[in-house]
Amino acid sequence: MSNVATRFAPSPTGALHIGGVRTALFCWLFSKNKKGTFHLRIEDTDKERSKDEHKNQIIKSLKWIGIEHDGELYIQSTKIDDHISVANELLKNGHAYKCYCSAEEIEDQKKRAKQKKLPYTYSRKCRELSESDAPKDIKPVVRFKSKIEGSSILRDLVQGDVEIDNITIEDFIILRNDGTPTYNLSATVDDHQMSMTHIIRGDDHKINTFKQMQIYLSMKWDLPNFAHIPLIHTLEGKKLSKRDNASTLDDYSKIGIMPDALRNYLLRLGWSYKDKEIFTLEESIEHFNLEGIGKSPSKLDMSRILSLNEHYIKNIDESDLFKQFIEYCKLFKSEIKTDKKDKIKKSLTFLKNKAKTLEDIFNNGQYIIVNEVSFNQEDIKLIDDKAKKIISGFLNSVSIIEKLSKENLEPIINHLIKSNETNFKGVGQPLRVVLTGSKFGPGIYDIIGSLGKEEVLKRLKNKIV
């Protein structure tokens, strides 16, 4: 077999859907596993809905999750003349014909099919119409002359052999009456010209594959291999659509899901290798195969994504986590000042505790990031006269020590507990409220250590005054 070549071919008519990302990932991994190439084709022939912003978002999203295409970006709209040329060749060779049926006639056929509760297929009325009998005042569409006899078998690398009766494949349009090519023609010509060896896509494309196989055979082109992946469903078992929450990559990056975690989740969504759950990028490439793809739809589970993300937050190198966190803040929150960055970096070990997302780390570290603490009004009620006395006593004691280490702070805290006849919470809670604005948050020693002596004294003085 020649070198493996796969492609991902999205339409730039909206944000990249999570199902599309998984398809792209499977195509990319399959190619990389086989030492082949992966290509990105932008199918932008829908001029009204195709937008550059969507194209750029698609490229950016794929890059974010670690998928980069080989070679030049392939833009479908630049190849329309080639698609039309193939349509004309099919006409010349008797594998296509001009159809003069009006929009009203087609609509009437559709209505009658609906009344009979049958799927609509074109009646083939113009299939044998001679040029001399054709109406002169109607611009025709060009239809592919599908086989009527026998059956076709799709040797699917995921689904196994799929056979259908040829009569069920309609004479589909390949050129509209304005001369523009349709999806099935354009995709087939592009795949042939790009020398694609494997077409891996969602199983909602199966009927298109049967149509495209007929074009291949009519043009005497070598058939590529086809693999159809089951779709992604919601937890309720419905097909996941672009209208669902968390259906695009942006939905995940905004809440601080990390690319490695999401890629690992999508890899395991409908694919398995032994009982392995966590894959590095290198392991994903090494082990990926089409045999591991299941035949049933997978359900998108947000709790599983969060759990995986938490695993990555806990286990990746802290300097890498810090870089990703700073980039996340820059994109979705606000850029953190240099002096605050240093404090965050030193405090990541405890800020990442119980964090499922980068947004959780941001929220945990808010008290470091802000210049002025904003107080939870319920929690401020905890600062009664006794609490103020504790804060004042703590302020006086820490003012005269040089370094705010746990070893230096513990005797001060213990003395305050004893002299105020309270417990650790009775001292720690008012201090936490004053220093962070909330009674919830990291441990008091971690808070004090992360803020540093100067900031601790400033916040304590402000609250006592």
What does this structure look like?
The chain has about 475 residues and is mostly helical. The protein contains 20 helices and 12 strands. The strands form 5 sheets. The protein has a 3-stranded parallel β-sheet with strand order 1-2-3, with helices on one face. A 3-stranded antiparallel β-sheet has the order 4-5-8. The longest helix has 16 residues, at about 20-35. The radius of gyration is 31 Å and the shape is elongated. The protein starts with a strand and ends with a helix.
List strands and helices in order, with pairings.
Layout: E1 5-8, H1 18-33, E2 37-42, H2 52-64, E3 74-75, H3 80-92, E4 96-99, H4 103-115, E5 141-144, E6 151-156, E7 160-165, E8 173-175, H5 183-193, E9 198-202, H6 206-218, E10 225-229, E11 232-233, H7 249-254, H8 259-268, H9 281-287, E12 298-299, H10 302-315, H11 318-332, H12 338-351, H13 358-364, H14 366-369, H15 377-380, H16 385-399, H17 406-419, H18 424-436, H19 444-451, H20 453-464
Parallel strand pairs: 1-2, 2-3, 9-10, 11-12
Antiparallel strand pairs: 4-5, 5-8, 6-7
Helix pairs in contact: 1-9, 3-5, 5-6, 8-10, 11-12, 11-13, 12-19, 16-17, 16-18, 16-20, 17-18
